[in-house]
Design a protein that fits this description.
Layout: E1 2-6, H1 11-22, E2 26-31, H2 34-42, E3 46-49, H3 55-63, E4 67-70, H4 80-98, E5 105-110, H5 134-144, E6 149-154, E7 157-159, H6 166-177, E8 180-183, E9 189-194, H7 195-208, E10 214-217, E11 220-224, H8 225-236, E12 240-243, H9 245-252, H10 256-259, H11 268-274, H12 283-287, H13 294-303
Parallel strand pairs: 1-2, 1-4, 2-3, 4-5, 5-6, 6-10, 7-9, 8-12
Antiparallel strand pairs: 9-11
Helix pairs in contact: 1-7, 3-4, 4-5, 6-8
Length: 304
């Protein structure tokens, strides 16, 4: 299968590219720079120049493929509205190019803001109406037009070597402020998945997925945030402290809201439907590996 991938040179996308090529697929990756194009070629992919804002590049890339995996997102959470709107337009454009065919479109979303009805958020739960995911709204609209779409919700922590998401930000804050903090009692839980397990899930969803399905990329159903803070504190040799909700915004900045959410999630249905089994280290085990703290150690030594 010839697969068009947006975000092909990102943290998750690069793992997806390798996974698909390893499974015998041909990859056409969206690249907006010469550096991105070079890394894509080095990974064995083909280059399609363009960007999320260049809708014609998305349209032509999707039209040339047997299936599309959309992992790209403008990660500016301090300016989330415009980023989400750009994501919606991109998804609509990709869907338009696939309309009237049976070619799959897999769209990335997240488990964090799902409105869970039970102890764990499941694939059947809808998104929180107070925090609607434009990506999932766009998918529903495309499905109503007969486009073969499915949603892959990722855990808020997709971890592994090269991670530059939430956990590295927490490490950076702890390094800057001299304490590793959690909010309240720190018992609120974060789901997590290793990026290599997530990449394999994208492959399975592409090959075996059902139109209209929602899948969860969740390995750790819920890691208490206090445990995350404790590992960071131990590695940085700084105190581990609690911050009240009033103090959290000042300490954590824009990620305070996310880090304070209790959002355990399940992937039981996904595992049953697709035969997906996470096999990589969990979040705490991965955090205990040195790669998360190498750059911090370098920064400490350079200032000492």
């Amino acid at each position: 299968m010839r697969v068009f991938i947006t975000g092909a040179t990102g943290f998750i996308g690069t793992a997806v590219v390798r996974e698909l090529i390893g499974a015998g697929h041909e990859v056409l990756g969206l690249a907006r720079s010469d550096a991105a194009a070079k890394s894509l070629v080095a990974a064995g992919g083909n280059v399609h120049r363009g960007s999320l804002e260049d809708l014609e590049s998305l349209r032509s890339g999707a039209a040339a493929a047997d299936g599309v995996i959309h992992t790209a997102f403008i990660h500016d959470f301090s300016n989330y509205g415009p980023a989400a709107e750009a994501d919606r337009r991109a998804i609509e454009t990709l869907g338009d190019a696939l309309a009237g065919s049976d070619r799959p479109l897999i769209v990335t979303s997240g488990t964090l803001l799902v409105q869970r009805q039970g102890p764990l958020a499941t694939e059947e739960d809808a998104t929180n109406p107070n925090f609607p995911r434009k990506s999932e709204e766009a998918v529903l609209a495309l499905a109503a037009r007969g486009v073969r779409t499915s949603v892959l919700r990722l855990s808020p922590s997709v971890h592994g070597n090269g991670d530059h998401g939430f956990v590295p930000r927490l490490i950076s804050i702890a390094h800057e402020k001299g304490v590793s903090a959690y909010i309240g009692d720190g018992l609120n839980r974060w789901p997590a998945v290793h990026r290599l397990d997530a990449a394999h899930l994208y492959q399975l969803a592409l090959e075996k997925g059902t139109a209209g399905a929602t899948y969860h990329g969740v390995a750790d159903e819920g890691v208490p945030t206090r445990e995350i803070a404790e590992v960071i504190g131990r590695h940085l040799n700084v105190p581990v402290v609690s911050k009240s909700r009033d103090e959290a915004a000042d300490h954590f900045g824009w990620i305070a809201h996310f880090f304070g959410v209790d959002a355990p999630a399940s992937s039981a249905q996904t595992q049953e439907r697709l035969g997906w089994r996470p096999v990589q280290p969990g979040l705490i085990a991965d955090l205990n590996a040195e790669h998360y703290f190498e750059h911090t150690a370098d920064a400490v030594h350079s200032h000492s």
